[in-house]
Amino acid sequence: MSEQRDWLRTALDRLAAEQARSADTHLLRYEFPAFPGVPFYFKDESTHPTGSLKHRLARSLFLYGLCNGQVREGRVVVDASSGSTAISEAYFARLLELPYVAVMARDTSPRKIAEIEALGGRCEFVDSAAQDHSHAQQLADDLDGHFLDQFGMAERATDWRGNNNIAESLLDQMRGEPEPTPRWIVCGAGTGGTSATIGRYLRYRGLDTRLCVADPEGAAFVEGWRSRSDDFVARGSCIEGIGRPQIEASYCFDVVDAVEAVSDVESCAATWLLESITGRRFGGSSGTNLIAAMRLAERMVDAGEPGPVVTLLCDRGERYSETVFDLQWLERHGLEIAPVRSELAARLGLR
Ligand SMILES: Cc1ncc(COP(=O)(O)O)c(C=O)c1O
Predict the structure, then answer these.
(1) Which atom of ligand 1 is nearest to the CA of 81?
(2) Given this model, what pLDDT does residue 1 score?
């Protein structure tokens, strides 16, 4: 008993020390000629030590598992992931000297698999994302391990009232801006944890800021939001991290004010455009967010309603050099991005 508590204390100390060594992520401000009075703010989550917004979630899931007595010395931890979460979880597992296994769809970007393995994690593959959850649960049972269950636990493992969650962090960073209260915050939905945290926090702080979820056309957040039921067949998407095939346990539709359905070709074209805007590469879900943010800004300009729009740059683009940033991959997926990218640049007033 006391040995277990000693190990737990050491584990919590290591997580706290890791947090102290890590800086907050940047909030970047851009103004586009087509949107006067509507500045864009990009919360750059790619600058976490493990390169994505999932660094926050993985830290929370480990803390939750530790404080629930489920993450224990020597016990294997398992999760289902589209890759970004697994990279962050492998990092924290290594920090705590725990074995880690990720269950992922076979077509996950090779770079992500390499990152997980470089951090000492092991990858198991399933044919589609729809099977990852049940496979991971079964594997954890077979190994007598702990199933971190990001899809089930994301909304409750995250401290929605604060503790520097993503909403608190970005709203604090807005404090010195000419207009500190965003009109809209746009995010994607993988687990739904980020949207649940932001939506709850906005209400908790009594803000009028509205929350928009950007999801691939035909995916579960879009369809579930429309029908408020799970009576649909979701369409697949090649935007990793979002566009889930079924409604996940952490989806909280009631805290979301709008949902924008974005085609894969728009997401990929916007991802390339983001590189021209920022000089850096981000993943496909950041492009999905940009499309939704642009649509909201266009409506705001039409309605004569100024104010900031905040969105997220979710992860590093280097992870997608063999997918979204590979012209042959785009062609294989029938994604002709060049004309869409030019049209998007024109809509921002860039050329
Ligand atoms: C790259 C990327 N963007 C966005 C998201 C959405 O985040 P959340 O899981 O909190 O809904 C994810 C989640 O899997 C992701 O991997």
Answers:
(1) 14
(2) 66
In this structure, are 303 and 180 located in the same domain? Answer: yes
Residue 272 inside a domain? The answer is: yes
Taking the model in full, what pTM does it have? 0.96
Q: Is the CB of residue 108 below 6 angstroms from any atom belonging to ligand 1?
A: no
> Domain with 150 in it: what CATH number?
3.40.50.1100
pLDDT tens for residues 207-225?
A: 999 999 999 999 999 999 9
Asked whether 285 lines ligand 1 (CB < 6 A), one says: yes
End-of-domain residue from the set 121, 155, 189: 155
- 316: Cβ contacts below 8 Å, ≥ 6 apart: 46, 51, 52, 281, 282, 283
Atom of ligand 1 at shortest distance to CA of 286? 3
Contact residues for 175 (Cβ-Cβ < 8 A; gap 6+): none
φ and ψ at 213, to 5 degrees?
-100, 130
Model confidence pLDDT, tens digit, residues 5-22: 999 999 999 999 999 999
Does residue 167 share a domain with residue 145?
Answer: no
d(CA 118, CA 105): 19
The domain boundary, picked from 97, 126, 155, lies at 155
Say if ligand 1 is within 6 A of residue 287 CB.
Answer: no
C-beta 45 within 6 A of ligand 1: no
